[in-house]
Every structure is written in C-alpha cells, then in structure tokens.
C-alpha cells in the first residue's frame, strides 16, 4: 500500500497510553482519508446520544493520501468529533504543519479518547508519544501557547492548540495552528477542552511513502511554481477572500445587522481594497501558493490576520465599519480560540434580541468596545450572559423565547457563514443541506447562481450544482486533504488532483471514483444524524426561517420586497434529494446505500428508522 501509511495512532488520555493500529488497503480505498476516515471512525466507535463534551466522544485528526506532499496547497488536516454545537457529525479543515509531520511520523490519522486527570499536551515524535503537563499554557490564549511550544520545540514542528474558549467548552470553540490558522467551527476546540487537552505537537522524520516518489516530487514542485505564477498574473491575493465583500454589497447578499439587511453604504470602508491598503503582513498554510491571510494593525496595535468571513460577520453583521476595530474582534477570537463566524452571528443575534426587548443589555449594533467585552465573557463563560453567548444563537433563542428562534441565523445549530440568502435559493439550499450546519465550505454556489443563472430560479439545475460542488468541495478536497482555492480562484484544473493521488498511491483513479466516494461519505454523515435523531425530517435541511419572511424583506435595492418561497424551496429540496437518491425526509434510501457499499451501516441505521 502506497500513499497511505496504513496506520492510525490511538491515544487514551485517561490511561495515558497509546498504540499503533493498522488498516487495510480496502478500507483506504473505500474511505480515502480525511473526512472519510473521520466519519467512518466516529460511526463505528461512538454510541448514539453520548455527550459531545463527555469522555466517550473522540477527537480525530485525519489526513489524506496527498496531505503534506509537495504540491499546491496540501498542508491541510481534518479535525472531527461529534459536534457539541449541532449534536451531529462535526469536522473542520485546518492548515497546519501537522499534515506533513503526522504522516512522516507514520500515521494517516490519530484518535484521541478518554479524558485527562489534569491539563496536558501531547508530544508525538515518530513512534513515541509523551503526555506532558500543560500548566504553563492552561488559561492562556492560543498565541501564548503557540509561542511557548515554538520556544521549546522550534518552529518546524506541527501544532494544534486551543485557547480559553476551548478550555471552557464554548460550543463554537475552534482548534488553532500556526499564527492565524483555525478549523473546526463545529466546536472541535471545545472537544479538546473537554478532554483537558491543550495542544498536540507533532514531529515526524520519516518519508511520505509515495508509489512514485521521484515523479511526485518533480510534478508537485513544478505545479507549485505554476500555480504561484497563476496567482501573480491574476492578482487574487491582492484582496484575497475579501474581494467578494464589495460585490456582495452590490448584489444584496452582505450580512448586515444580524442578516436583516443585505447592504450598507459604509461597506466600502471594510472592502478588499481597504484591507489591502492596511496590510502589514501576509500568511498562508504549508505548501500555499496563494496566501489568503492578510494581517493588519488592529485598534490596539496588534497584528490581526483577516479574511472575508470574519470581516463580514464581525464587521457589517455587527454594524461595525472600522477595519481596525474588526481586526481587534478577530484577534480576540483567534487568541481565545472562538470561531469568528459563530461569534459574529451570536453577538448579532444578541443585539437583535435586545432591540426586540427579549433580553436586557447594553449591547447595540456598531458598539465595537462592548463586543470585545462580550467575546471575553463568552470565552470564559462568565455569568449568565457569558454562558448564553458561549452556547450559540440557537440555544440562546430557545432560552429567550418569543419568536427569536426565527431570527437566530443558523442551520442545525451552526451559525450561517457570511452570505445573506434572503433571495438566493441555491445558496440557501447549500446552507440547508450542509451536513455539518451552515458552512459555506461545502458548496459555495452563490457565484454561479448570481453570475450565470436566473436568481429567481428554483430549478433542478441549482440542486444539481449544489450536489456537484458538495462532491468536489466537501468530498474530493476533504478526503484528499487539500485546499480548494487554486481550483476555485485560479482555475487550476480538478484533473490535477487524481494525478497527485495516483502518483502517491500507484492507483489509476478518475474523478468519477472520487464522486462515488464523496456520495458514500455524505450518505454516512446523514446516517450519523439519523442515528442521533431518529425523528429526522426535511425541516432540518431548511435554511433560517427569516429568509422566508416577507416582512423582513429589503425595502429598497435589487431584491426589494422579495423573500424565499417555502413551497418552491421544498421543490428545490425534492430535486436535491432525488439527485442524491434520498427519500422525502432527506435520508438515503436502501437502494442508494447498497449501491455505495454501506451494507453494514444499513443494518445499524435501521435500528433507529426504516429506510425507504
């Protein structure tokens, strides 16, 4: 077996023991890696209805057969567990040196189980694992922890760590790496914190076990140069991801004031041009060809790394249009280890609830200083408000009551990423059907929808495009594991990825092989949900109800008076289910599951529901 190391590292924090376990080539080819390995492991090893923050949950770091190889943007890993914020399968994609180091140490994944008796961190070097006290880092932010680890082990090691938000189990706490990388907005940092695991440090010295190592090296390094030149020619990194902010404002898709508005006259103050002008440094992941992290000087004079999602949700969605103040909010989220998207969505919901008289508070849209204080109390779970904020907008809405759940901008418990889909049916479908909650990474269909098709359409072609993008973005890239930006932003052909895979593994896969593997993991992610919620129905694949409310529609601009239509959305959802071979509830049929080789999984899920 080439490409894969064929081994998984299992670490038990309760007993402070570890072991190396093997897997077959048949397993590798069926689940590929990354998200595939993660969901299959969690399905096999977790009992339904366990507490996501209890010792029974398992924290997984999973790599793919091209993770860390010298090729464009391969410095990525998947972190996964049962999600504390959604209650279903949860994962995240993070840029980290762990991607290469863990493979060089001899592993394709690691499973962390149990709970430590006191805060610790893991130091993994090849065949050894050390369980070391984390007292010096516990209670400190991720920047301190990162620097402490680098001072002890050097800057070449791979690092995953958490901040105070993870320690205090804020439900949208993330895992952090390098200076500005974060992943696992489904609460993966909280899972680490629940286990008293502050950090994972990895140093591997072996090879990457490619079938054609010389060809792999030559091809990968040549392609790194080509994609870097493509970026220089196209200039994408000049504004990076924030280039979309001005466009979203023009087409009425920007989140403003808890998604109640879709544009704002001051949006230009925080757009990509202004971000580029404020740039003091640029960062990226290992093997990155198009560095997306633009750092600016924040309001307090610190270096804060920015991208569109945090500017949209900590900026316009909170009514804040001072770039340096948004930088401060982003810095705090990064240091505490809070997901910037859920933090911005939850604070916006809180301001909205105060405006509607459901809860007393001093926070108002536009108040950056109070937002900073609230991030602190959320990360530390201080007081009633801190605890409510740390639990996210859906749980807060259920506590506050009234009709507030209708304007808690979330899907499956996870706050919506920074695209306002009041009248964008296809992107609303992408959010609704995302298997981990409202994350844009699964199917960023908005560009296709607004530039190439009729915005008003609820036709089958939009469902087809969502499935196509989920197969690519949530399947191919999450299994291999690699960054999708060269393909999305520069037009680097998808055929390059089977090429890397085949050079690594010695196989002869085509893209069609990856589409089937992708459909398999999407089916299993849905089965995971159904096992947790046997009463599963299609309403759990709906976007936020506020987008269907015409009383919440824009009063001016390109979508004035318009909102999503529930009946037409259901028709669109039917198209999606039909394309995937799922029933009207949104559950894979027996025939579909059998065609994907999920015979054992069928037996398990039918203990909880009847498959069509």
Largest sheet: 6 strands, mixed
Estimated helix fraction? 40-55%
The count of β-strands is: 17
Q: Tell me the overall shape.
A: globular
At the first level of CATH, the class of the domain at 7-203 is Alpha Beta
Briefly characterize the structure.
The protein has 612 residues and is an alpha+beta fold.
Written description of the protein model:
The protein is of the alpha+beta class. Helix 10 packs parallel to helix 12 and helix 12 (340-355) packs parallel to helix 15.
Map the helices and strands.
Layout: E1 7-12, E2 17-22, H1 25-31, H2 35-45, E3 59-62, E4 76-82, E5 89-95, H3 98-104, E6 109-113, E7 120-125, E8 128-133, H4 142-153, E9 158-161, H5 164-167, E10 175-177, E11 181-183, H6 188-194, E12 197-203, H7 213-234, H8 244-250, H9 272-278, E13 281-283, E14 293-297, E15 303-306, H10 308-314, H11 323-336, H12 340-355, H13 368-380, H14 383-390, H15 393-400, E16 410-411, E17 414-415, H16 425-433, H17 446-452, H18 460-480, H19 485-490, H20 496-505, H21 511-532, H22 566-580, H23 590-595, H24 599-605
Parallel strand pairs: 1-6, 7-12
Antiparallel strand pairs: 1-2, 3-4, 3-6, 4-5, 7-8, 9-12, 10-11, 13-14, 14-15, 16-17
Keyphrases for this structure?
612 residues, Aldehyde Ferredoxin Oxidoreductase,  A, domain 1, six-stranded mixed sheet, 17 strands, 41% helix
């Amino acid at each position: 077996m080439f490409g894969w190391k064929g081994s998984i590292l299992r670490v038990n924090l309760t007993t402070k023991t570890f072991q190396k376990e093997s897997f077959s080539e048949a397993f590798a080819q069926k689940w590929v890696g990354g998200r595939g390995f993660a969901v299959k492991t969690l399905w096999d090893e977790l009992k339904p209805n366990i507490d996501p923050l209890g010792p029974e949950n398992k924290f997984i770091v999973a790599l793919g057969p091209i993770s860390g190889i010298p090729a464009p943007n391969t410095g990525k890993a998947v972190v996964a567990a049962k999600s504390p914020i959604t209650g279903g399968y949860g994962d995240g994609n993070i840029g980290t040196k762990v991607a290469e180091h863990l493979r060089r140490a001899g592993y394709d994944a690691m499973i962390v189980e149990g709970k430590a008796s006191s805060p610790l961190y893991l130091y993994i070097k090849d065949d050894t694992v050390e369980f070391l006290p984390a007292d010096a880092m516990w209670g400190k932010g991720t920047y301190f922890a990162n620097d402490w680890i680098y001072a002890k082990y050097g800057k070449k090691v791979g690092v995953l760590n958490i901040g105070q938000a993870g320690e205090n189990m804020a439900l949208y706490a993330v895992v952090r790496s390098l200076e500005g990388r974060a992943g696992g907005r489904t609460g993966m940092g909280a899972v680490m914190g629940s286990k008293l695991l502050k950090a994972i440090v990895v140093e591997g010295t072996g090879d990457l076990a490619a079938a054609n190592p010389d060809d792999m090296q030559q091809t990968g390094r040549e392609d790194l140069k080509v994609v870097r030149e493509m970026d220089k020619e196209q200039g994408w990194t000049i504004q990076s991801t924030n280039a979309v902010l001005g466009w979203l404002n023009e087409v009425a898709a920007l989140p403003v004031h808890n998604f109640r508005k879709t544009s704002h006259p001051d949006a230009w103050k925080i757009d990509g041009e202004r971000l580029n002008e404020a740039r003091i440094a640029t960062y990226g992941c290992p093997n990155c060809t198009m560095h997306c992290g633009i750092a600016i000087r924040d309001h307090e004079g610190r270096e804060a790394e920015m991208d569109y999602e945090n500017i949209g949700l900590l900026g316009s969605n909170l009514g804040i249009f001072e770039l340096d103040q948004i930088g401060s909010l982003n810095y705090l989220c990064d240091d505490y280890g809070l997901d910037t998207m859920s933090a911005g969505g939850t604070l916006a919901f809180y301001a909205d609830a105060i405006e509607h008289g459901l809860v007393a508070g001093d926070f108002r849209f536009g108040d950056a200083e109070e937002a900073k204080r609230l991030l602190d109390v959320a990360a530390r779970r201080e007081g009633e408000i801190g605890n409510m904020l740390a639990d996210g907008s859906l749980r807060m809405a259920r506590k506050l009551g009234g009709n507030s759940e209708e304007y808690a901008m979330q899907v499956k418990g996870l706050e919506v990423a920074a695209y306002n889909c009041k009248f964008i049916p296809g992107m609303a479908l992408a959010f609704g059907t995302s298997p981990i909650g409202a994350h844009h990474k699964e199917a960023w269909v908005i560009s296709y929808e607004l530039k190439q098709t009729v915005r008003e359409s609820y036709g089958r072609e939009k469902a087809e495009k969502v499935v196509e993008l989920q197969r690519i973005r949530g399947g191919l890239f999450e299994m291999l594991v690699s960054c999708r930006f060269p393909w999305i932003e520069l037009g680097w052909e998808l055929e390059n990825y089977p090429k890397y895979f085949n050079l690594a593994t010695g196989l002869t896969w085509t893209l069609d092989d990856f589409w089937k593997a992708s459909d398999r993991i999407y089916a299993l992610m849905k089965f995971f949900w159904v096992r947790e919620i046997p009463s599963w129905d299609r309403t759990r694949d709906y976007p936020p109800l506020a987008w269907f409310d015409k009383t919440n529609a824009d009063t001016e601009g390109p979508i004035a008076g318009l909102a999503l239509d529930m009946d037409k959305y259901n028709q669109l959802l039917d198209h999606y289910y039909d394309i995937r071979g799922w029933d009207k509830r949104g559950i894979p049929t027996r025939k579909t599951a059998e065609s994907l080789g999920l015979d054992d999984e069928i037996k398990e899920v039918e203990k909880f529901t009847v498959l069509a």
